[in-house]
Amino acid sequence: MRLRSMMAATALAGAAAFGAVAPAEAAPSTASGNVGVQYVVNAVFYEHRNYGGSTLTSAGDYGCDTNSDVDWQRSSMPSAWNDEVSSWHGFSNCQARIYEFTNFAGASYGAYTNSNYVGDAMNDEASSYKHY
Ligand SMILES: [Ca+2]
Ligand SMILES: [Ca+2]
Q1: Residue 104, by phi and psi: left (phi above 0), alpha (psi -120 to 50) or beta?
Q2: Is the pLDDT of residue 128 over 50?
Q3: What CA–CA distances, in Å, run from 77 to 48, 52, 74, 106, 130?
Q4: Which pLDDT score is estimated for 39?
Q5: Measured between alpha carbons, how far is 49 from 105 in angstroms, rounded to an integer?
Q6: Closest among 77, 40, 70 to 130, alpha carbons compared
Q7: Would you state the pLDDT for residue 28?
Q8: Which residues have a beta carbon within 5 Å of ligand 2, which is an ion?
Q9: With bands split at pLDDT 50, 70 and 90, how would you rate the model's confidence at 31?
């Protein structure tokens, strides 16, 4: 019973997050005060391959452009997420590249919009990432 209500809450939160993407992209705003529509989801990282397990949402004030430059980056993962990522979905036109170590060092994988498995070499290794 408890599990069921948790799953329902997760589904609702997911729907709310994705619902916020379109309006924020259509009208990017620097206005503070309405965080609910200011952030867009750029990627969702997953603990397991094939988009399974816990999720880590990467969000920003806006999505990614079509240039090859870096749009967003995170030089270290949240501590609970160091060496955990096994797959991801990209959103808001973003691709992701993951790095073995913090500060974008070591081996890397990507950039891809989606990856249902990062491969044996990079599985449970990601410690930083960039969005393109
Ligand atoms: Ca994993
Ligand atoms: Ca690592």
Answers
A1: left
A2: yes
A3: 16, 18, 7, 15, 11
A4: 85
A5: 23
A6: 70
A7: 41
A8: 83, 100, 125, 127
A9: very low
From the CA of 83, the nearest ligand is 2
Domains of the chain: 2-23+36-131 (2.60.20.10)
Cα(122) to ligand 1 centroid in Å equals: 10
| Tens-place pLDDT, residues 77-95 | 999 999 999 999 999 999 9
Which ligand sits closest to the CA of 98? Answer: 2
* Least distant ligand from the CA of 118: 1
Ligand with the closest atom to the CA of 76: 2
- pLDDT tens-digit series, residues 37-47: 568 999 999 99
104 CA distance to ligand 2 middle (Å): 10
